[in-house]
Write a structure and sequence with these properties.
Layout (H helix, E strand, L loop, with lengths): L7 H8 L34 H7 L2 H5 L6 H5 L6 H8 L4 E3 L7 E5 L6 E11 L2 E11 L2 E10 L2 E6 L3 E6 L2 E4 L2 E3 L2 E3 L2 H9 L5 E7 L2 E7 L1 H13 L7
Parallel strand pairs: 1-2
Antiparallel strand pairs: 2-3, 3-4, 4-5, 5-6, 5-10, 7-8, 7-11, 9-10, 11-12
């Protein structure tokens, strides 16, 4: 059981700009402010660079360098400052947290960064003070289970394993940090292809296995975020 505020800046840095990273070998070279397509380079999806992502901790700083990563090349984040600023004009800006089930850019009170996200909850019908909260970023999810009681503070628990189920397809999600899991390109493409299918997360905790269902509204808003930030590219 943990307090939610202990999640810290490490996970925020992983999802800032909502994007992706690093070349397997060779030195990193500074890139131009706005990365453009180069037909001479063979790009790979971020799925192949998770170890580098976890080690480097910052997607934005990696995407500002000459990296052969599809998400860095095609999508929009802080590594493409002009396009990122234009994208922010299309949706609400929030301080600390946006409304539930709505895509917006929230300003993190500690880092001052504006982060694209969709926050949602799945309440326990038998106990409104118990349930799951998840924040969907373009390539990651932060999720925790909370529980409270009359006269006591909420307690938080982070899953030790997370599996996504979209329609009939199942996706094992790689762990990035406590409560933070990577959303692979295959899952993102599956949601973009058919956002009408049900999406749920099967979370394993020390207290058992639980299912968090994502509302149709949140799925629609997540799809909107992926499209606005150009994650709907064809690989």
């Amino acid at each position: 059981m943990f307090k939610v505020k202990t999640l810290g800046l490490i996970f925020l840095s992983l999802i800032l700009g909502a994007c992706n990273l690093i070349v397997k070998s060779g030195e990193l070279k500074p890139a131009s402010p706005e990365i453009e397509d180069s037909p001479q380079l063979a790009y790979e999806t971020l799925d192949n660079f998770l170890l580098e992502l976890k080690r480097e901790k910052s997607l934005t700083s990696l995407c500002k360098k000459d990296l052969r990563i599809l998400e860095c090349q095609k999508a929009i984040g802080e590594w493409k400052p002009e396009k990122f600023e234009r994208a922010k004009l299309e949706v609400p800006a929030c301080f600390d947290q946006c409304m539930l089930d709505a895509f917006g850019f929230y300003r993190d009170s500690q880092s001052g960064k504006e982060i694209p996200a969709v926050r949602t909850k799945d309440f326990d019908a038998s106990a409104p003070s118990r349930g799951f909260e998840a924040t969907l970023f373009p390539v990651a999810i932060k999720i925790f289970r909370y529980e409270g009681c009359t006269g006591c503070a909420l307690t938080y628990q982070y899953p030790t394993k997370l599996v996504a189920e979209h329609g009939e397809n199942t996706f094992n999600l790689p762990l990035l940090t406590r409560g933070g899991y990577y959303l692979p390109a295959t899952l993102r493409k599956s949601i973009l292809r058919d956002p009408s299918k049900e999406l749920q997360f099967r979370a394993k905790t020390t207290e058992g296995e639980f299912i968090m269902e994502i509302s149709a509204k949140s799925i629609s808003e997540y799809t909107k975020m992926l499209k606005l930030l150009k994650y709907d590219f064809e690989s």
